[in-house]
Amino acid sequence: MQKIGMGEKLVYTGSLLGQNMIYSFVAMYVMFFFTDLLRIPYQSVTIIMVTASLWDAVNDILMGMLADRTKTRWGKFRPYLLAGPLVVAVATVLCFVHFGGSAGGTVLAAAVCYVLWGMSYTVYDIPIWAISSVSSQDANEKNGMVTLGKIGGTLGTVIISVGSVSLLNAFGGERSAGAYTAAALVVAVTGAVLMVLSGFFLRERIEPPPKGVPFRKNIHTILNNTPLKALMVALLIVNMVNNVRQVTQMYFAVYVWGDSGYVTYIGLSLVVGMILGMALSPGLIRRFDKKYLFIVSCVAGAAASVIPFVVDGGVVFSLILLGISFAFTGMTTITSTSMLMDAIDYAEHKLGFRGEGVVFSMNTFLNKLSATISKGLLGAALGAMHYVDNMAPNDTVRTGFSAMVYVVPALCFLLAAVPLVFYRLKPAQIETIRRELDARRRAEK
């Protein structure tokens, strides 16, 4: 059995680092850019985000099915890893360009650019995650790749969380539209260079079936997979923990703590927490049932999230508790992705074909939908607070943004544990399934 080399692992980690640099920059700043720099009413911005998400519901699934039906001499997923980065980079920069013109034209341009960004992101995101499930026959190696990818993705998020304010300041500051354009260009080019390496160096070691799986049949990977459906509902909700914080943290730093520079310290709490949680996860997964590890992480994460809202211990105290909650987010991230691999193997065992593309397309869609719901919640909160750009802080605004950073993530943690009542795959069952799949593949050769 061919092992995954260290160089391949580094490239995979770096690719997800670059991709998440781009994603995090857009997630953190696009709504702030639209409302405070382009002067688009928050109601219109919310509509743009929701509309884009509805299109992604179709676009992501179609992309997953297309990837599953792709058959080239480079493999199922590598062609998209080569072509996707350039498109993502261009679309990212366009989201942060002030084209001028009428108010209506500005809204239209913002909507078109954001929808194009979501579509281009899908072209790369689904294949880069799906390729991990065919990178090796060995389950531990595949889980290792997922862990490295998640660590790389977290580092990409941290780089933006910690360094983006300095980058914006270098080009004119948070109130300059040109600063966002220049910063987006730097982030997009850097991320795309790291991303494109995946197309050259990653390998697919599980061969696809000789005949492509029809679209109507492929969707049964999800429809006939109760554990996967339960897990996906849980992922939709738990992804909101970080997404709500990402879209709110600039507002929170400016209007609650009084300085946008605190975004850097929130980023530092994220890096320490997430990497610690993800580093501990593989060892815990080997010792405990993933389902219960996920549930315990959710409950503990909820407690750590809500304490700073109830107990006013100052900025340092809040950052420490945020770091702890990020650690439990890291655990849910690695645990849920490993469970996703199990659900793919379960689908192959039950249906006779693997549907990595459609599964990871749904995972991508759920993350985008989660981010969109988070932006919608922020939009509703802005309305409830009677927010106007560059307003003077008051108690209503401080309480509102604090609730978005502390209370809403705590509720998401708790709600995410509920759907796993229907996830009934046990470790022994998964081991049996994998042994039977290995025997089936050897018999087919």
What topology does this entry show?
Blueprint: H1 6-37, H2 42-69, H3 78-94, H4 103-130, H5 139-170, H6 177-201, H7 215-218, H8 220-223, H9 226-255, H10 262-287, H11 290-310, H12 314-351, H13 356-384, H14 395-417, H15 427-444
Helix pairs in contact: 1-4, 1-5, 1-6, 1-9, 2-4, 2-13, 3-4, 3-6, 4-13, 5-6, 5-10, 5-12, 9-12, 9-13, 9-14, 10-12, 11-12, 11-14, 12-15, 13-14
What does this molecule look like?
The protein has 445 residues and is mainly α. It has one domain (6-203, 214-444): Growth Hormone, Chain: A, CATH 1.20.1250. 80% of the residues lie in helices and 0% in strands. The chain has helices at residues 6-37, 42-69, 78-94, 103-130, 139-170, 177-201, 215-218, 220-223, 226-255, 262-287, 290-310, 314-351, 356-384, 395-417, 427-444. Helix 11 (290-310) runs antiparallel to helix 14 (395-417). The longest helix has 38 residues, at 314-351. It is globular, with a radius of gyration of 21 Å.
